[in-house]
Amino acid sequence: MANSNEVTQDFLDSVQYQPESILQYELVYGEDFVSPGGKALAQEMIARLALAPGSRVLDVGCGLGGSAFVMAREFDLKVDGIDLSKNMLEMANRKLTAYGLAGQVNLEWKDCLQLDCDGFYDAIYSRDVFLHIHDKSRLFSVLHAALRTGGRLLFTDYCCGPKPWSDEFTDYVREREYDLHTPEAYAGLIENAGFTSVTGEDISARFTELLQAETARIAEAGMEASVREKLLDSWQQKIKRSKTGDQRWGFFTAVK
To answer: I want to staple 247 with a disulfide (CB 3.0 to 4.6 A). Which of 121, 155, 196, 241 is the partner?
Structure first.
């Protein structure tokens, strides 16, 4: 990793992405997905890239591969998916084999701060991943270099309101080792890396709607009562933080 503040693979796989936790997230978000909105939102976001068939996309933090599989099946795109969680990738590659998409999708363990593929991708896509990365300046510089001229960046990520935060939100961010910014500050970081046509949108209202729908799914999911109660509490806390403005959700696009 770039520095001692960066989250490591060991931290991710031992704290947030243990195999049983990944399966629980998949029950909430839908088959192959571990990010808000699941397949429906992935389809919407990928369509907004407006890429020609055969374009090459880098999916940063590909998770279980859901978005990459949609890109290949529904948009005829070539996708390289990378993730820092080995637990996630092990499951994702089993799915890749079962779906027979190895010719269009490649999933591998890689640190996105260590990319060495200048001018290679037509687009870079990511869903709620960059919150784990503390060196945002280096992140966007590396992503900018990896895109061809005219290439597009599109991602969603957890954001925050201005400080001071509530004690509960401060503890939440510290425990997860997240690095969060306001949507406005995030857009500035992207521009500073040399991107143009930068858009940054606070979509927290939609985040709250998704959380409420996901809460209903958790209540009906086939899982142990203790697990269900733990997830329900986690989602209700996220709804509370979103409504108070501490926790926000951002949608960003940019062009090289």
So the answer is: 241
For residue 134, what are the CA distances in angstroms to 17, 21, 179, 199?
19, 23, 5, 21
Q: Which of 108, 109, 118, 122 is nearest to 141 (CA)?
A: 118
pLDDT digits (tens, 9 = 90+) for 142-176: 999 999 999 999 999 999 999 999 999 999 999 99
Determine contact, residues 232/211, Cβ cutoff 8 Å.
no
20-62 confidence digits (pLDDT tens): 889 999 999 999 999 999 999 999 999 999 999 999 999 999 9
Residue 207 burial class via C-beta count within 10 angstroms: exposed 0-12, middle 13-18, buried 19 and up: buried
Bond prior to 164 in cis (omega within 30° of 0):
yes
Q: Which residue has the tokens 């090459």?
A: 56
Spatial separation of the C-alpha atoms in residues 256 and 10, rounded to whole Å: 33
Torsion from C-alpha of 208, 209, 214, 220, nearest 10 degrees:
130
Q: Is 229 left (phi over 0), alpha (psi -120 to 50) or beta?
A: alpha
The two structure tokens encoding residue 164: 């001071």
- Copy the structure tokens of residue 114: 């260590």
Contact 104, 83 (CB under 8 A): no
Q: Which amino acid is at 129?
A: V
Which positions ≥6 away from 153 have C-beta within 8 Å? 123, 124, 143, 144, 147, 190, 195, 252, 253, 254, 255, 256
Is residue 152 within 8 Å of residue 122, measured between CB atoms?
Answer: yes
Q: Where are the domains of the chain?
A: 9-255
